[in-house]
Amino acid sequence: MIKIREKIERFVYSGKIQGPGSFGILKMIKYVAKAVDRGKIVGLFSYLKFITLPKKTVLISKPFVMACFVNSKCNLNCPYYCYGVPDDSHLGSQYGGKALLGGCRNMTIDDFKKISNHEVFKNSLAAIFSGGEPLLNKDFFKILDYAGKKFPVIHLTTNGTLMADYVDKIIESPLTHINISLDAYSAEEYKKMRDKENGKELFDRVVKNIKNLVKKKEQNNKDLEIIISTVVGKLNYKNMQKMIDFAKSLGVNSLNFQNIVGFDNGELEKETLMIEDQEVKDFITSLKEKNSDFHVTYPRILSKDKSIRGCRQPFDSLTIDADGNIGPCSVMVPNPNNNFGNIFKDKDVWNSKEITGLRSSLLDGEKSLGSHFCKDCTFLNGKIF
Question: Within 10 Å of residue 183's Cβ, how many Cβ atoms?
Fold first, then answer.
């Protein structure tokens, strides 16, 4: 195993791969080398089969992504974010400032060891950590260290407000990606999107933390993708170029724009970017033409044409909480009330009646989705299979 890994790494660092797109190829090969080192060869071959063969409702392959909600507690209370809660209360499955998570408890290192060693995750290639705010979990860096022994790709989503005390630990950890939420290029805009009363102080803190992380990454030659995520809707989409310029100035690797999706929240639904809005389409097209030198993921825009459907997540991912409750995607997250099962209580949750039924509906498209929760999700905009 080690000899194979060393040969791959020597090939990567020898500079033999050059030309357009070589940066992406180099990253891919480095992750392949990590996968080999962690005994994930079966997972790699399974993934290659998965991305090339037609999708089925019952899958022989195991999930390639393990998405862990390590808590539900958050130090912020954003109006459009549905997962975090300001305390540990069990709020059930609601939206619009209330949590979909069902108040999942803090995941301990023992919980994570038990989960990550479960049969269902034996071929998983990536571990994604979110919450709540993961940095509020006292075991989080122990969890990260253990994850580094098992997964080639390790991804953290954070609001960035608490990073000041953890920058050195982040640099020393096996993290490969960190996704930091920053919804504006200025304090005034941030106040509109996040916190009217404390917006300036929070904005300044997050920006300072990002700059410090970028500096420490460069000083330590850390192989870490630093990503900024920004929520956009009709209220602020015309600020996207300013946000791109700001992200570039901070020295991060990429910027990820996310469309506001209201689901059952009528006020938020009014802000959702729609593909039928020609002005929005033209504006985003112009941005793509002007910013080819920087990696930007543009927002998925919803369409009134419900026949344009397709989602990959229930076919390659499972979300999970500390108690083993699972969800099929990053939107229908772990919740004991959602009926998708529990890896410690139920047999073969990966091919359960509920999840195979969801896959079947997604493959059938609009005629099966009806009023399903999926119908207003941005991951369903456009054919991605």
Answer: 25
For residue 12, give the amino acid letter: V
For residue 208, is pLDDT > 90? Answer: yes
Give the residue-averaged pLDDT of 212-236.
95
Q: How far is CA 182 from the centre of its chain?
A: 15
Does 28 fall in a domain? Answer: yes
- Cα(201)–Cα(211) distance, rounded to whole angstroms? 16
Task: Give residue 15's pLDDT band: very low, low, confident or very high (50, 70, 90).
Answer: very low
Task: Answer whether residue 261 is part of any domain.
Answer: no
> Whose CA is closest to 168, among 134, 132, 215?
215
* 244: three-class secondary structure by DSSP: helix
Mean pLDDT of all residues in 13-40: 55
- With 0-12 / 13-18 / 19 or more C-beta atoms within 10 angstroms meaning exposed / middle / buried, residue 160 is buried
Spatial neighbors of 18 by CB under 8 A, at least 6 apart, are none
Does 22 reside within a domain? Answer: yes
Q: Quick check: 46 pLDDT over 90? A: no
pLDDT of residue 102: 54
| Of 223 and 196, the one with more pLDDT | 223
Describe the strand order of the beta sheet including 254-259 as a list of residue ranges: 295-297, 254-259, 225-232, 177-181, 153-158, 126-130, 65-69, 317-320, 326-327
Task: Characterize 164-178 residue by residue with b for buried, 16 or more Cβ atoms within 10 angstroms of its Cβ, and e for exposed.
Answer: eebbeebeebbbbbb
The percentage of the chain sitting over the pLDDT mark of 70, rounded to a whole number, equals 76
User: Which of 112-116, 152-156, 298-302, 333-337 is least confident?
Assistant: 333-337
pLDDT at 42: 75
**Domain count within the chain:** 1
Tokens representing 111 are 């919980």
Mean pLDDT of 165-176: 97
Measured CA angle at 82 (ends 267, 371), to 5 deg: 65
CA-based torsion, 259, 260, 263, 269: positive or negative: negative
Residue 25 belongs to what domain range? Answer: 2-37
Half-sphere exposure for 380 (CA within 13 Å, toward CB) = 27
Rounded-to-integer distance, Cα 118 and Cα 319, Å: 14
Give pLDDT, residue 141: 98
Within 38-70, where are the H helices? Answer: 41-52
Residues 337/92, Cβ–Cβ less than 8 Å:
yes
